[in-house]
Write a structure and sequence with these properties.
Helix content: 25-40%
Low-confidence stretches: 1-31
CATH superfamily of the largest domain: Immunoglobulins
Radius of gyration: 34 Å
CATH class of the largest domain: Mainly Beta
Strand content: 25-35%
CATH architecture of the largest domain: Sandwich
Oligomer: single chain
Mean pLDDT: 89
Shape: globular
Number of strands: 25
Distance between the termini: 100 Å
Number of helices: 23
Number of domains: 3
Structural class: alpha+beta
Length: about 700
């Protein structure tokens, strides 16, 4: 027993040291804060701000950023975000003021710094208070009883005990193991670690105090065991981390990441989301990134009996060298009738899409903005598209609650489709016992021997112990690439599970994948309503756009020759697309094939009354490189006519005039450019050198 008490005391000391370190870091980090923000951080919200929120706040550089963060801080805690009043904030400052006024008496500390003040701020008024004062055999004690706090992870009912240590000073929070019944009595001379004897003596003096001295949780029965309740100290530790259970603190990190990207009116309105990202190989051998974003809520505007919102998606892929490989923007206008709103109001929205991707490792991010409510959410994920020559590989497991198979003639692609099977899934991986669990994945690089002799072993673990297992030969599946299996969950009791799928050959494990899921005790789950688009058959003309996307990605990665193949294919199938031709022209220009650029872009420039700026500039550059300087000037002047005077066009005109020997015309172009943009030291030097020659 003594060893257990010593271990618990060491644990308490550990948490105390962590608190001291965090407090020290806070003081050091907040030294440079203006008084207003230091007071907010160190006094007003010190008990309810999470470590991540504190860390982010201390990284902010300007008062404007701090003001926006404080606004976001309170919004994340607002129980009714659609109203003007923030009930949480109002109640917090009421508790803070009450604690300062009532718990600071007879102590040099302000009331909010005392243990009673801290607990009052965190938990509000107790349901009942019992006071023991003016007793000769016990120090002044208060017992606060709470109930109805189960939503914060506390027992249905519990006590907090505060006592004046040695009869003076502030009331300190009592710990059954660290203090013990002996700390409550004025004249206890027994063994300081004999809790049972101290309890029995206190019971003779004050039975009610004795009842809570070994356990803060009513009915736990610790007095019969003669030692303090470990659950009581766990309860006290939970009180210290209550702020972590009151808010999803991820918004703070998002605020830091996106404060310079999203507009001010969005920056304080981050909403959490669940998300899924998976890389899946299509039947045609292309790899597609499949993703789903499920915002915590969807805010809509109302006009009469119509409801609507407008979402904007901004996606980007950055490779390990920091190059932006791919970017996209999408607009999603949504309109609903009252009946539709009633139908979907209790169901989450799931935004789903897919796009092709070249092999490599990337950071994938998507920013979603709701233009009606000025809210934003995001996903960030590290992803990779495998190279075929990398050998045997198993994709991450997809877990779903439903499955739809398409016929062999339907070659359209849908989000989260493996082979012919589209998996219906939800990012939180929560299932009902009446569900079928769908497990989908791919295995690349299977040898002929593995296809014949290999097997897949499925093992379910419940709380880290093996629960069920199942094996199946690879040859029993229709496809040696796409694997989809179904499992009934009717024998899975509500709990947390892990599924591990291993590829075995002659008993040896070669590769494996794993994922976690929960089986809930609920009878019904609100499955999401899905917004997504189905991609047509890969053989249809629209898939030249896929070639364009892949070619653009290769171009951005510097793989010019590979990019050329894809972009030529896209442009040949869409000869009327200026965007496709412009991207191919960039490739030709890098390959010094200027004549092909001219042949490609000249028809667009001549026929379009408002030709694209990029087409004009690339065409002029090609003329210039081939020595057709007058034609280059003609095209550049056409650009000025349509898009106005800018320094880039003027500088190019100046260079062409200079090569033609027209120094005066070149000087005129350079000087106009400098008027528009004075911050051009090279052009300034060029002008000075030309004037000296004159």
């Amino acid at each position: 027993m003594e060893r257990g008490i010593q271990d618990l005391k060491l644990l308490i000391l550990f948490f105390f040291l962590i608190f001291i370190i965090i407090s020290s870091e806070l003081r050091l980090g907040a030294v440079e804060l203006p008084a207003f923000y230091r007071k907010w951080l160190e006094e007003e919200v010190v008990y309810i701000i999470t470590p991540l929120e504190r860390e982010v706040f201390l990284k902010l550089k300007t008062d404007r950023e701090r003001d926006l963060f404080i606004e976001a801080f309170w919004k994340q805690r607002d129980p009714t975000p659609g109203t003007t009043e923030n009930e949480f904030k109002k109640e917090h400052y009421r508790r803070l003021n009450y604690s300062t006024h009532f718990f600071g008496r007879r102590t040099p500390k302000p009331g909010w710094k005392t243990d009673r003040g801290r607990m009052y701020i965190l938990l509000c008024e107790p349901n009942d208070i019992q006071r023991f004062e003016g007793k000769s055999q016990t120090y002044p004690v208060e017992i606060w009883f709470y109930q109805g706090k189960t939503d914060l992870g506390f027992p249905p009912g519990f006590n907090l005990v505060f006592f004046q240590e040695r009869g003076s000073g502030e009331y300190r929070l009592y710990s059954p193991s660290a203090d013990g019944p002996q700390a409550l009595m004025t004249s206890y001379w027994g063994d300081r670690v004999d809790y049972l004897k101290a309890y029995q003596e206190l019971k003779e003096i004050e039975p009610v105090l004795a009842e809570v001295s070994l356990s803060l949780i009513p009915g736990e029965g610790s007095p019969m065991l003669g030692r303090p309740s470990l659950s009581s100290d766990l309860l006290i530790q939970k009180l210290e981390t209550i702020s972590l259970r009151q808010v999803k603190e991820s918004y703070a990190q998002k605020f830091l990441e996106y404060k310079d990207i999203v507009e001010v009116e969005y920056s304080t309105n981050y909403i959490s989301c669940d998300s899924l990202v998976s890389v899946i190989r299509s039947k045609d051998g292309l790899y597609f990134v499949h993703y789903a974003i499920e915002p915590e809520r969807l805010s809509v505007g109302q006009s009469g009996d119509k409801f609507s919102t407008h979402l904007k998606l901004y996606g980007s892929l950055v490779d390990i060298e920091g190059r932006t490989v791919y970017q996209f923007e999408k607009e999603i206008p949504l309109e609903f009738t009252q009946e539709q709103i009633r139908e979907i109001s209790h169901r989450p929205l799931s935004l789903r899409d897919l796009f092709p991707l070249i092999p490599g490792r990337y950071k994938f991010s998507v920013l979603v903005k709701n233009e009606v409510s000025k809210e934003f959410t995001s996903l960030e994920r590290e992803i990779s598209t495998p190279e075929d020559e990398l050998g045997l590989q198993m994709s991450p497991l997809l877990l779903g609650y439903g499955l739809k198979s398409s016929g062999w003639e339907d070659r359209r692609l849908r989000p989260f489709q493996i082979g012919d099977s589209q998996i219906f899934l939800q990012a939180n991986h929560i299932f009902l016992r009446q569900d079928e669990l769908i497990v989908g994945f791919q295995v690349c690089g299977l040898s002929e021997e593995l296809k014949k002799e290999g097997e897949l072993r499925y093992i379910f673990y419940k709380e880290n112990e093996e629960y069920k297992s199942f094996s199946k030969k690879i040859s029993d599946y229709e496809s040696p690439l796409d694997f989809v299996e179904k499992f009934s969950l009717d024998e899975f009791l509500p709990a947390h599970y892990t599924i591990v799928v291993s590829l075995l050959f002659k008993g040896q494990r070669l590769v494996e994948g794993r994922s976690e899921f929960d089986v809930t005790h609920l009878e019904k789950i609100s499955r999401p309503w899905v917004y997504s688009k189905v991609l047509p058959n890969l053989k249809e003309p629209i898939y030249s756009f896929m070639s364009f996307m892949l070619g653009t990605q290769l171009f951005n990665c510097g793989q010019i020759e590979k990019a050329r193949c894809y972009l030529e294919d896209a442009a040949s199938k869409n000869q009327g697309s200026v965007e496709f031709s412009i991207q191919l022209a960039r490739v030709y220009l890098l390959l010094n094939e200027e004549k092909k650029v001219v042949a490609l872009l000249l028809p667009f420039v001549e026929s379009d009354p408002q030709p694209k700026y990029e087409a004009l500039f690339l065409l002029a550059t090609s003329y210039k490189k081939t020595g057709a300087l007058k034609k280059a000037i003609e095209i550049l002047e056409k650009g000025v006519l349509h898009y106005g005077i800018n320094s880039t066009l003027l500088n190019e005109i100046g260079e062409c005039q200079l090569e033609l020997g027209n120094v005066a015309e070149a000087l005129e172009a350079f000087e106009k450019s400098l008027e528009i943009n004075p911050d051009q030291p090279k052009i300034k030097s060029r002008i000075e050198a030309l004037k000296e020659k004159k």
